[in-house]
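Need residues for this backbone.
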């Protein structure tokens, strides 16, 4: 049974990703920061269905928390075979209003967390000459989003990290890929009105808004044992909104 760690899995895309991996027969570690009850409910939902899941608390924007999380997982199971770096925050602000604190929090939560988790996961993956790393970026990291410069920069950083790390780990049987979702209905986009969603859908070639399942299924595909020749890629899950 593969061990899969999904960061930020208490809600939204991360929670659905945990469901899909668990359904796939993997043991999932549901990382959360604030949403303890939601994480417990999700783990119970999965274990009640006979699937294998455990919760693990860590603020992944902090290197020390990530270190403790991996130490705990290694004690329980040896190490992580599949890492999904999904935890993230967004914020809409004029560029000139972004404070130092906003910037630091954005970069720490979206980008530094990915660095900390990849670094912690890799020694085990290298030892076993197998690993799958999937980093959740955003289409705004590909094309830039107005009034989301700090978010776009952090998500673009994830794409750079993914491509470079894929090159470094290619001979170790480890693939590193990115998913760049378009607009997905979760808490992160709950500030958008139905009118906003309608307008965004009409600008999208498929005429629709994405779901957490769309992203989760792409993650399961990239993590498959047979996806070994796919690495360093950015997979857009965006209904054709961005074509690269
Ligand atoms: P969401 O519904 O707001 O959920 C965010 C998740 O991240 C929560 O489980 C939250 O955990 C966790 N998280 C935040 N900060 C954390 C930290 N410091 N340590 C650990 N966990 C943390 O967001 P979502 O829409 O599912 O987004 C998931 C990922 O997809 C993010 O990286 C986001 O940028 C990306 N994305 C989303 C969209 C979209 O349209 N929704 C589009 C493109 C990319 P707690 O509640 O437990 O704190």
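Answer:
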């Amino acid at each position: 049974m593969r061990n899969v760690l999904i960061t930020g899995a208490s809600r939204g895309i991360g929670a659905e990703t945990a469901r899909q991996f668990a359904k796939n027969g993997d043991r999932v570690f549901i990382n959360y920061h604030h949403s303890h009850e939601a994480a417990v409910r999700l783990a119970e939902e999965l274990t009640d269905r006979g699937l294998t899941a455990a919760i693990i608390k860590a603020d992944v924007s902090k290197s020390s928390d990530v270190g403790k999380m991996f130490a705990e997982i290694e004690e329980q199971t040896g190490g992580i075979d599949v890492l999904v770096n999904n935890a993230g925050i967004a914020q809409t602000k004029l560029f000139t209003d972004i404070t130092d604190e906003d910037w630091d929090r954005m970069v720490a939560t979206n980008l530094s967390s990915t660095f900390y988790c990849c670094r912690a996961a890799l020694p085990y993956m290298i030892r076993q000459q197998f690993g799958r790393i999937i980093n959740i970026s955003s289409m705004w990291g590909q094309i830039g989003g107005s009034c989301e410069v700090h978010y776009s920069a952090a998500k673009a950083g994830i794409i750079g990290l993914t491509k470079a790390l894929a090159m470094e780990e290619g001979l170790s049987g480890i693939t590193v890929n990115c998913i760049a979702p378009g607009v997905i209905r979760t808490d992160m986009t709950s500030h958008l009105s139905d009118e906003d969603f309608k307008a965004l859908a009409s600008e999208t070639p498929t005429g629709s808004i994405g779901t957490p399942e769309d992203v989760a299924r792409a993650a399961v595909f990239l993590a498959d044992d047979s996806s070994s020749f796919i690495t360093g890629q950015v997979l857009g899950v965006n209904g054709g909104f961005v074509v690269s």
